Amino acid sequence: MSSTTKSISLREAQKIVLLSQKLPTQKVATDAKNVTLSAIEHLGYIQIDTISVIERAHHHTLYNRNSSYNSDHLQTLVSDKKVFEYWAHAASFLPMADYRFSLPRKHAIASGKQKHWFKRDEKLMNAVLERIKFEGPLMAKDFDKKGVKHGEWKTAPTKQALENLFMQGDLMITKRVNFHKVYDLTERVLPSTINTKTPTEEEHGEFLIKKYLRANGVGKLTEMTYLLKNMKPLVSKALEQLLLSGDIIKIHVADHEYYILPESLELLNTPLTRKKLNILSPFDNLLIQRKRTSEIFNFEYLLECYVPQQKRKFGYFTLPILWGGKLVARMDSKADRKEKILDIHQLTLEPSLKKTEAFAEALNKELKLFLKFNKCTSVRLHKTIPASFQHYFEQSYPELFV
Q1: What is the pLDDT of residues 221-240, one digit of tens each?
Q2: How far apart are CA 228 and CA 232, in angstroms?
Q3: One Pfam annotation, family name (predicted)?
Q4: Phi-psi region for residue 151, left (φ > 0), alpha (ψ -120 to 50) or beta?
């Protein structure tokens, strides 16, 4: 280890990461919608997911950053042209202020340097583009021919054309109707004041690094380029330049070497709220890189909805629970919206969790808010591990349970 390389403890690294992620949730006194926008701008992206076992991931992630979050915020911010949909490591909501940094990917797809998963049909793409040009915003179903079936796992050719046009930047999404995308010409969606100058490779690399480190505290090259095709050489070069300039530094945490912004070390002087509990989405920015979650929080996590039922250990849609600066439990849940009951199929405590009474009190407090967020009024608890916790929890807080 170099004598000039700073070393911090794993506990200190966890604190920096959580504060950088705006966790645990802080109460806000300012306009709630602006707090949501600020969270998106700080985190850099909010992943969109279609699973609606509980409230969808993009709402869930923002709920954990804004105590006054409302699910209408996202659509309003899209309508106000403060946020737009595109691709980060996955489909996401992105800050409009960062629009120009989506251009390198769009240009690469348009030129054929980067492949999209749908086959390109230039003639059909042009026809789709012309219809939107003259008719205005349209959804994929507006192109469907009645009676034509494409098969359970097939995507209609016009939908493929729309997505290719979207990914290469000719179209943007103006809103969603019942979660269906509404497409329009990019020139009609973009604010007139937005910077549309394509960044240089140096600018792009620096942006990716600084954006990642502000949102995540510490990071490695592999983490900064997670699922970003062909970006490692560009980001690696930018890292060298930023190290030379002192804009970033290296630190050691246990057996791992990370990059960090020097000012992020000042977060060690900021108190971390340890009483507040957060029930997290599987797609939360804190958790999305599972290897990183394991290394920093010693928490092995797998979303088991993609695992055959007989092989599941924790449940179909397990939500990690953050408390006391640690990931201490997992809750397999489903919102029964008709009965307004949140089913907790299995609540599993980590073996390291010792203060179960204080944990139960914190979970009870958060569950009351989580129920409201999911439009439920009570909890149906099926199973806990250890089993002894179920009776204790239900008896301690009977007002929550049916």
Answers
A1: 999 999 998 899 999 999 99
A2: 8
A3: AlkZ-like
A4: left
Other CB atoms within 10 Å distance of the CB of residue 220 = 18
Residue 147 — left, alpha, or beta (φ > 0 → left; ψ -120 to 50 → alpha)? left
DSSP string, 92-158: EEEEGGGGGGGHHHHHHHHHTSS--SSPP-HHHHHHHHHHHHHH-SEEGGGGPPTT----TT---HH
> Average pLDDT in the 352-361 region?
95
Instruction: Fill in the amino acid letter for 176.
Output: R
264-319 pLDDT, tens digit each: 999 999 999 989 999 999 999 999 999 999 999 999 999 999 999 999 999 999 99
Question: CB under 8 Å to 268, separation ≥6 — which residues?
Answer: 8, 12, 15, 16
Q: Measured between alpha carbons, how far is 167 from 106 in angstroms, rounded to an integer?
A: 6
Sheet holding 83-87, edge to edge: 46-47, 91-95, 83-87
Q: One-letter amino acid identity for 95?
A: P
Distance, CA of 368 to CA of 378 (rounded, Å): 8
Residue 219 near residue 213, CB atoms below 8 Å: yes
> What CA–CA distance (Å, rounded) separates 377 from 341?
6
Amino acid at 160: Q
Residue type, 107: H
| Residue 153 pLDDT level (bands cut at 50, 70, 90) | very low
Using the predicted structure, report yes or no on whether residue 29 has a pLDDT greater than 90: no
What does the H/E/C string look like for 75-103? HHHHHCCCEEEEECCCEEEEEHHHHHHHH
Calpha distance 324→362 (Å, rounded): 10
Residue linked to tokens 């070393």: 7
Residue 3: per-residue pLDDT:
46
Quick check: 6 pLDDT over 80?
yes
Residue recorded with tokens 């409230």: 55
Pairing mode, if any, of strands 318-323 and 326-336? antiparallel
Q: How far apart are CA 59 and CA 69, in angstroms?
A: 8
In order of start, what are the domains of the chain with their CATH numbers?
22-189 (no CATH), 278-400 (3.40.630)
Per-residue CA distances from 236 to 26, 161, 201, 224, 247 (Å) = 35, 34, 11, 10, 14
Separation CA 272–CA 18 (nearest Å): 8
